[in-house]
Amino acid sequence: RSFRVGRVRTFTKVIFPEVLPKIFVGLRIAVGNAVLIAVGIEFVNGSSGIGYRIWNSWQLFVADRMYVGIVVVALLGIALRLMVDLLRWLFVPWQRSATGGRDG
User: Fold this and answer.
1) Which of 39, 53, 81, 100, by CA, is between 20 and 30 Å from 46?
2) Coil, strand or helix: which one is 50?
3) Does position 27 have pLDDT exceeding 70, yes or no?
4) CB atoms within 10 A of CB 73
5) What does the radius of gyration of the chain's CA atoms come to, in whole angstroms?
6) Residues near 56 by Cβ (< 8 Å), separated by ≥ 6?
7) In whole angstroms, what separates CA 42 from the centre of its chain?
8) Is 67 in contact with 45 (CB distance < 8 Å)?
């Protein structure tokens, strides 16, 4: 206010850059929860999907198929987290330089 900057410019130059890293932290957590919830719902009430395949394989004692499903879910979670980290790296370059090259 003391610099007589408008609301839009204050938002785009001060507030949004401050909030953006926190948005990506929330996205990272949300992606992990989304994968777990989707697989859990498929366990309970699914007739298709990775969670259904894991649960069905466990019930039928087909361990190899069950472990493949678990690995696929893990790889899906890793891939989605890396995607969020890549987007954070692209859209929050000031945080990248502030951490001294470390990612985290």
Assistant:
1) 81
2) helix
3) yes
4) 19
5) 20
6) none
7) 19
8) no
